[in-house]
Design brief:
single chain; alpha+beta; flat; 2 helices; 123 residues; 4 strands
Length: 123
């Protein structure tokens, strides 16, 4: 379990921990969000996020959240904020970058599908 070194340093509402060892692809697959200043990250749990672990079509795969799922949620929230009373330049710029990130990740999926390696542990 390791606390993430986040970009936002001041006024954090939560702390984030990776809860597992590096797995397929070289990434963590379980994260925990907790209220700050807790000595034990099992106390004050706000959320536990379990990511997909392994390729879609492999039998050992653990189904979970995808990176794009979280980005789509944040994109939706920023769209709502931009249509609300607190729209701001920073949120608009963040929305633009998140949309670009989603488009790039989708390009990767389309490329993998066209090469018939989508859902497989192949490059």
């Amino acid at each position: 379990m390791d606390k993430l070194n986040t970009i936002q340093k001041r006024n954090n509402l939560n702390e984030i921990y990776s809860m597992d060892e590096l797995g397929p692809g070289g990434a963590h697959h379980v994260y925990r969000v907790v209220t700050p200043n807790e000595i034990d990250p099992t106390v004050g749990i706000v959320a536990t996020i379990k990511f997909q672990k392994g390729a879609r079509s492999e039998t050992e795969t653990t189904t979970g959240v995808l990176d794009v799922d979280l980005l789509e949620i944040v994109r939706d929230r920023l769209l709502c904020f931009q249509n609300g009373p607190f729209a701001c330049e920073e949120d608009g710029e963040a929305l633009r970058h998140i949309t670009e990130a989603l488009m790039l990740l989708n390009k990767r999926v389309e490329d993998r599908a066209s090469r018939n390696v989508l859902g497989k542990s192949e490059k």
